[in-house]
Amino acid sequence: MTTTGEVHRDAAGGPWWWERRRSAVLDVGLAVVSAAECAVEGVPFAHKAGLPAWVGIVFGVLTGSALVLRRRWPIAVVLVSVAVTPAQMGVMLTVVGLYSLAASEMPRRIIAALAGMSFAGTLIVSVVRAQQDMVHSEKLLEVGGWFVPFVAITTSLGVTAPPLLFGMYVGARRRLMESLTERNESLERELLLLAERAEERAEWARGEERTRIAREMHDVVAHRVSLMVVHAAALQAVARKDPEKAVKNAALVGDMGRQALTELREMLGVLRAGDAVPERGAVPLQAVGAAAAAAAAASRAEVEDAEGGPCLAELEELVEQSRAAGMVVELTVLGEERAYGAAVEQTAYRVVQEALTNVHKHAAGAKTYVRLAHREAEVAMQVENEPPPVPAAASAADLPSGGNGLVGMKERVGGLGGVFVAGATDVGGFRVSAVLPVG
């Protein structure tokens, strides 16, 4: 930052302390004009001082040339103008020097002190010159005693006040523009940072959506298909011995297959409707994250509120399906039944559903207990199975396991601020417990 408040940029190509070449050309031009003026005024000064004319010319050229330093050292320029004021030279030097000083970043007390010195020097010289003019002019003597102070004050104010006020205005305007420029750059940096964070949030939202979709597909498909496989295995075993039971099992397999297809169609329809996430470049970068998050939230809400979505009222039907597959299941409901939010009901249903699916996979034939407790501020569920009839034996249907069932349940419950616990019991069975807040 130079003393005139202008930012110095080395890359701009200006020589020495000038930021641009045109600034250097302007200052050199002003210095040449000022040097010419002072050189002309130096001749009568040298004559009055009894010196050769060339001395006054050289002195005037050196004095006027000081104006080339107005951007670098405005104080020095003003001091030179004050020093040569008694010699009655350097009017341009005084005017341009005061303007440069007022437009600079100098403290206001220094500007006021130097402006006062310049005003005082100009006032004294104006008084002396006015008195000399009155002595040599009879007409001025007839005007009266007010002429000298009037001319002196008017001349002093005319030389010092306009450049000082204009310089202060230009300096204030320059500082305002610099402040606005800095603020604009700061806002651009903040917008860039927000855009980067929006991209991160958008990527996070997409990852969350992929995880949620995978969990939904797992919950919808795994339970239904597991029951279908169990019923198909039972159908194969009793097809020749008990045709009526075989027909019943075949009908159950068909019903479960249709239910699974219906749920898959509903989910895929919601996902297609929720795919309208704006492409990058179609909207400002800072809107991408918000749009992706909004689309994810909307898609999640539509899935949870879709018609026919699972809820606790369908828990009895879920247990009956497992009983129809040959599992011995006891359902116990404690507390006063009431409706909860769609997310809570769906999560509670999916936890019980996935726990029953795991029993079909890993403990076929084991007696299972399903407990549901309605509490004041929470709903709790527990699915516990006894050891299978044949210890360490795999399911007769040889159902595959992806190993993501317990992880998906824990993520669902944790997403609602609940508590999830799963592990083996002391007697060799397995227990899945979850508590969901309903506030």
From TrEMBL:
Which UniProt keywords are present, listed alphabetically?
ATP-binding, Coiled coil, Kinase, Membrane, Nucleotide-binding, Phosphoprotein, Transferase, Transmembrane, Transmembrane helix, Two-component regulatory system
Q: Name one Pfam family in it.
A: DUF7134
Q: What are the GO MF terms of this UniProt record?
A: ATP binding; phosphorelay sensor kinase activity; protein dimerization activity
- Cross-referenced InterPro entries: DUF7134 (IPR055558), HATPase_C_sf (IPR036890), Sensor_HK_TwoCompSys (IPR050482), Sig_transdc_His_kin_sub3_dim/P (IPR011712)
Coiled-coil regions in this chain?
170-197
Catalytic activity line of the entry: ATP + protein L-histidine = ADP + protein N-phospho-L-histidine
Q: Where is the Signal transduction histidine kinase subgroup 3 dimerisation and phosphoacceptor domain?
A: 209-274
Q: Which residues cross the membrane?
A: 51-69, 75-98, 110-128, 148-170
Every copy of the DUF7134 domain together lies at 16-151
The name under which this protein is listed is histidine kinase
Organism encoding this protein: Streptomyces xanthii
